[in-house]
Specification:
Radius of gyration: 29 Å
Number of strands: 17
Strand content: 25-35%
Shape: elongated
Number of helices: 13
Bound molecules: adenosine monophosphate, magnesium ion
Oligomer: single chain
Low-confidence stretches: none
């Protein structure tokens, strides 16, 4: 079965408010094996709202609205659904009574407009709202000869969550054909999105029953594999089989088959080898250290390091000989290597990581353009240095460089 979520509220069309409820709902619907095929955001205009609901009814089995159930003039969802379905609204005296009681308990005079929240679509089940005044509604109906479920939920996130978990999940489970979902998340580093896709598309397109999505973010690729089947074992087997083939194809680019981040994996490998790491960062200015220390327990393997922006500090904190800087320039494979070796020596870590580069926008030359970076890893005996040229703006270059640096350590330890 498929579903459309309609977020109602003019504020959701401004830069100041986001539709976050649908993120919660898509998580729950995914668990139930319901396919969310559309999300719509619509402002508080009756005609637009009714139109959006009609469109949703025409293309999905389940329509869920959120918002617009309050007492004010711009709360029009009930009316819009009634119009779209050609169903009447009736004021429910029990709800009116409960509203009066609620206000009375707080010693507040209830204004008349509150009673609109008691308007119920003919044939619908009322969903009680323990956290607010506006009840939701559950309507199992027919539209154009097809069975449709229309669920009206309030807007405030805490009310949506409680109402959906407590009153909709079981009801939906009873209606939706039993499906279970298997998921796998593979992560790859330092490969472009199009390059990765060109290699794996011939594989995953053969698995029509597995939904494969690729998300790319500065040298980090997330591959989500989702399969929905009648039983868990079959779904999991399909996803695992495809994951295995993708891993085979992307080989050493894949760093996790279980959704871990690159920094988690680096720390995991360091722990496995009973090794420690120290970092001397120039152009990333602490980004690598920041990423590593964002993981709890990182102190077991990450000893720390230095941000060595000036030439003087490269020498003072990371022991880079001034002659090496003078002969090769601060952005060079020699300095990257010396940073890695020096910080390792100074901290007695097992591995030293050195990072230097030109993040721009200024400071580039023909010989050494903006985006040129060197990262090095050393254990005191062997020093590996990698040169790369990244495009994009300063933040982009810095992010890619931190990824390159962490990936170099991972490859060294793997
Ligand atoms: P309403 O029921 O439309 O009056 O909405 C009540 C409150 O919930 C407002 O503060 C809205 O901004 C918020 N809200 C409504 N819809 C959403 C949504 N989809 N995601 C997050 N907040 C929402
Ligand atoms: Mg609203």
């Amino acid at each position: 079965m498929n579903c459309e979520i309609i977020a109602v509220g003019s504020e959701l069309l401004t830069p100041y408010r986001q539709d976050t409820n649908s993120l919660f709902l898509t998580d729950r619907l995914l668990q139930l094996g319901v396919n969310v095929t559309f999300k719509t955001i619509v402002g508080d205009r009756l005609a637009n709202l009714a139109n959006a609901i009609r469109i949703a009814l025409g293309r999905t089995d389940i329509v869920i609205t959120m918002g617009g159930l309050g007492p004010t003039e711009d709360d029009l969802t009930r009316q819009a659904v009634a119009e779209a379905l050609g169903i009447r609204l009736r004021r429910n005296p029990d709800i009116v009574g409960a509203l009066y009681a609620r206000f009375a308990a707080r010693r507040i005079q209830m204004t008349d407009n509150n009673a609109r929240q008691a308007d119920v679509l003919d044939g619908s089940v009322i969903l009680e709202n323990g956290r607010g005044t506006a009840p939701g509604q559950w309507l199992d109906t027919v539209y154009g000869e097809h069975r449709k479920l229309v669920i009206l939920l309030p807007g405030p996130p805490t009310e949506v969550k409680a109402m959906f978990d407590e009153q909709c999940m079981d009801r939906l489970r009873a209606v939706v054909p039993k499906r279970t979902i298997a998921m796998r998340t593979l992560k790859a580093a330092m490969i472009g999105e199009s390059q990765a896709d060109a290699r794996i598309a011939p594989i995953y397109t053969k698995y029509k029953d597995v939904d494969t999505t690729i998300l790319a973010h500065t040298g980090d690729i997330t591959l989500n594999l989702i399969c929905s089947k009648g039983d868990q074992e079959t779904a999991q087997a399909r996803v695992d089989e495809l994951a295995g083939k993708i891993e085979e194809e992307l080989e050493e680019f894949i760093y996790s088959a279980q959704a871990e981040s690159l920094e988690q994996i680096v720390l995991y490998y360091l722990g496995m080898h009973a090794s420690t790491l120290a970092v001397a960062e120039s152009c990333t200015g602490g980004l690598v250290s920041q990423r590593l220390t964002s993981i709890s327990g990182s102190s077991r393997s990450f000893v720390g390091g230095a941000v060595v922006y000036s030439d003087e500090l490269k020498t003072l904190f990371a022991g880079v000989p001034p002659s090496v800087i003078e002969a090769n320039g601060a952005v060079s494979k020699e300095v990257a290597g010396a940073l890695a070796e020096g910080i390792r020596r100074k901290t007695s870590a097992t591995f030293g990581l050195g990072v230097t580069g030109i993040a721009g926008p200024g400071g580039g030359s023909e010989e050494k353009p903006v985006g040129l970076v060197y990262v090095a890893v050393s254990d005191g005996k062997q020093t590996d240095v990698v040169e790369r040229r990244f495009g994009g703006d300063r933040e982009h270059i810095r992010a890619w460089t931190s990824q390159l640096a962490l990936d170099l350590v991972r490859r060294r330890l793997k």
